[in-house]
Amino acid sequence: MVEVSGVLGVAAVALGMVLTPGPNMIYLVSRSITQGRRAGLISLGGVALGFMVYLLAANLGLSVVFTAVPELYLTVKLAGAAYLALLAWNALKPGGVSVFAPQDVPHDSPRRLFSMGLMTNLLNPKIAIMYVSLIPQFVDLDRGHVLLQGLVLGSVQIVVSVAVNLGIVLAAGTIAVFLARRPSWLKVQRYLMGTVLGALAVSLAVGQD
Questions:
Q1: Alpha carbon distance 142, 160 (integer Å)
Q2: What is the pLDDT of residues 131-143, one digit of tens each?
Q3: Are 27 and 116 in contact (CB under 8 A)?
Q4: Cβ atoms 27, 86 nearer than 8 A
Q5: pLDDT of residue 76
Q6: Cβ 36 vs Cβ 29: under 8 Å
Q7: Which residue, 4, 42, 145, 207, shows the most beta carbons closer than 10 Å to its own?
Q8: Cα(178)–Cα(175) distance, rounded to whole angstroms?
Q9: Nearest to residue 168, comparing CAs of 47, 86, 63?
Q10: What is the pLDDT of residue 62?
Q11: Residue 130 CA to chain centroid, in angstroms?
C-alpha cells in the first residue's frame, strides 16, 4: 500500500525537523528540568496529541480550509512566528537563561502541563505545512487508498518525533548537569538557540508558502 521509499522519506524529514531547536523542544526541556521527567512525559503527551490533530485535519481537508480562508492560515502563521520570536527574546535578552539552566518556577498541574504541550505544538504552523504540502508528495496515487496512505505516512512522522522527544525528555536533566559544569557552553547554547529561533520566526513571518 505505502512504498518503503515513502516511509523512509517521511522518517528522514521528521528526524530533521525534530532535531532542529523549536518550541516543542524548548517546552519539553524546560518542563523536564524544572519539574522532573514525569512532567516532561505529560507535556510530551500533549505534544503528541497536537501531532494527531494536525494529522487528522490535514488528511480530512485542512488544505481546503486554508485555501478557502487564507486569513485563517495567515493568523495561524503569524501566531506561530510571534511565539517563536518570544522564545528567541527570552533566550537572547540581557539576563536570559538557557533552557537547560535549572530555574525556580512554580510547578504546573498535570492538566496544565498537557494542555501547554498541546498548544505549543498547535501554534507551530510548520507542522501543518509539513502535513499539507510535504507528506502528500510521498503518496502514490496509483496504489489507491490515498486517505489511508496519508494517515500511515503521518503516523510515521509522529512515531519518529515522539521517540526523539522522549529521548530529549529523559536526557534533559543529564544535559543540564553537563552544561552547568561548563558555564561558557551554557551561554553558547543559549545564544545559538535564541538565534535559530529568531531566524525561524522571521522566516515564518515573511516566507511565502
A1: 26
A2: 766 676 677 767 7
A3: yes
A4: no
A5: 65
A6: no
A7: 42
A8: 5
A9: 47
A10: 57
A11: 11
- How far apart, in Å, do the first and last CA atoms of the chain sit? 30
DSSP secondary structure letter of residue 108: P
Rounded CA gap, 172 and 89, in Å? 22
Q: Under DSSP, is residue 99 helix (H, G, I), strand (E, B) or coil? A: coil
The C-alpha cell at 129 is: 505545512
- 5-43 b/e (C-beta count within 10 Å ≥ 16 → b): ebeebbeebbeebbeebbbbbbbbbbbbbbbebebbbbb
- Are the CB atoms for 47 and 122 separated by under 8 Å? no
Q: What is the pLDDT of residue 171?
A: 87
The SS3 of residue 182 is coil
Q: How many residues belong to the chain?
A: 209
| Listed residue (159, 158, 166, 127) closest to 42, CA to CA | 166
Q: Which residue ranges of the chain lie beneath pLDDT 50?
A: none
Q: Within 10 Å of residue 74's Cβ, how many Cβ atoms?
A: 12
Matching residue, cell 501543518: 128
**pLDDT, position 65:** 66
Q: For 175-200, how does the pLDDT look when each residue is reduced to its tens digit (9 = 90+)?
A: 766 766 766 766 676 677 677 767 76
Amino acid type, 143 = R
* 3-state helix, strand and coil shares in percent for the chain, rounded to the nearest 5: 80, 0, 20
Q: Which three cell numbers stand for residue 154?
A: 503521518
> Which pLDDT score, from 0 to 100, does residue 43 have?
94
Q: Cell 507542522 identifies what position? A: 127
